[in-house]
Amino acid sequence: QVKLAESGGGVVQPGRSLRLSCAASGFTFSSLAVHWVRQAPGKGLEWVAFISYDGTNKYYGDSVKGRFTVSRDTSKKTLYLQMNSLRGEDTAVYYCAGDRGGGPFEYWGQGTLVTVSS
Amino acid sequence: SFVLTQSPSVSVAPGNTARITCGGDNIGSVAVHWYQQKPGQAPVLVISYDSDRPSGIPERFSGSNSGNTATLTISRVEAGDEADYYCQVWDTSSDHRVFGGGTKLTVL
């Protein structure tokens, strides 16, 4: 079955960078578009970024545009979220979520916690 | 861009029906998806494309969407349904996905 597993979270100082990974298994890697969704402590879900199944299309939420970059490595079956110029308000659990062509987020990872603090 | 409005909380007694709404300007013109999230867990898709129920989701869960309101209905509510529920749409004008603020369902 489809499995997504995030890693790379941790504590980072404001202004620094961090890269999250999302390892995929159980499906044809190039068949799934992937999103990053985050959830600040005690808050709701916020859509962060999208990368199409072939990596040609990428979109970002307004709060992260210009600071975050999404990519995918087909050979490693892994998605990445490069986060630069981190701020306190980026503190959240980050989930990767898969959709099959413009549909709902059918598949979710377990999430990885990012804490931005000095 | 799309703004989705959900009531912060809904309370219902076991065995009764819970209705969770998601408001948005002409939301009936787009597909709405619903997610259930229990504490400490990742969200789970419970309704897709307004009213489709994914495999494994009980028939007690149903959805509708018309005009400016989409509704998730949970019949014969059980204690295990207590969770946060989120609506979500695809804003094709910006290619952004949008979530509602979430509704906490409390089973009395």
Topology (SSEs and partners):
The complex is a heterodimer of chains A (118) and B (108).
Chain A lengths: L2 E5 L2 E3 L5 E8 L7 E7 L5 E7 L6 E3 L7 E6 L4 E6 L8 E8 L7 E2 L3 E5 L2
Parallel strand pairs in A: 2-11
Antiparallel strand pairs in A: 1-3, 3-8, 4-5, 4-9, 5-6, 7-8, 9-10, 9-11
Chain B lengths: L8 E4 L5 E6 L9 E5 L6 E4 L13 E6 L2 E6 L8 E9 L4 E4 L3 E5 L1
Parallel strand pairs in B: 1-9
Antiparallel strand pairs in B: 2-6, 3-4, 3-7, 5-6, 7-8, 7-9
Task: Compose a concise summary of this entry.
The complex is a heterodimer of chains A (118) and B (108). With 118 residues, chain A is mainly β.
- Given as residue ranges, the uncertain stretches of chain B (5+ residues, pLDDT < 50) are none
Shape of chain A: globular
Output the structural class of chain A: mainly beta
What value does the Rg of chain B take, in angstroms?
13 Å
Question: In whole angstroms, how far apart are the ends of chain B?
Answer: 36 Å
If you average the pLDDT of chain B, what whole number results?
97
Assembly context of the chains: heterodimer
Please state the structural category of chain B: mainly beta
Largest sheet of chain B: 6 strands, mixed
How many helices of chain B does DSSP assign?
0
The number of helical elements of chain A comes to 0
Strand content of chain B: over 45%
Biggest interface: A-B, 21 and 24 residues
Largest sheet of chain A: 7 strands, mixed
Proportion of helical residues of chain A: under 10%
Shape category of chain B:
globular
Structure overview:
- The complex is a heterodimer of chains A (118) and B (108).
- Chain A has 118 residues and is an all-beta fold.
- Chain A is 0% helix and 51% strand.
- Chain A contains no helices and 11 strands.
- Chain A has strands at residues 3-7, 10-12, 18-25, 33-39, 45-51, 58-60, 68-73, 78-83, 92-99, 107-108, 112-116.
- In chain A, strands 2, 4, 5, 6, 9, 10 and 11 form a 7-stranded mixed sheet that branches. In chain A, strands 1-3-8-7 form a 4-stranded antiparallel sheet, with no helix packed on it.
- Chain A is globular, with a radius of gyration of 13 Å.
- In chain B, strands 1, 3, 4, 7, 8 and 9 form a 6-stranded mixed sheet that branches. A 3-stranded antiparallel sheet of chain B has the order 2-6-5, with no helix packed on it.
- The N and C termini of chain B lie far apart (36 Å).
- Chain B is mainly beta and 108 residues long.
- In chain B, strand 3 (33-37) and strand 4 (44-47) form a beta hairpin.
- The mean pLDDT of chain B is 97.
- At the A-B interface, strand 5 of A face strand 3, strand 7 and strand 8 of B.
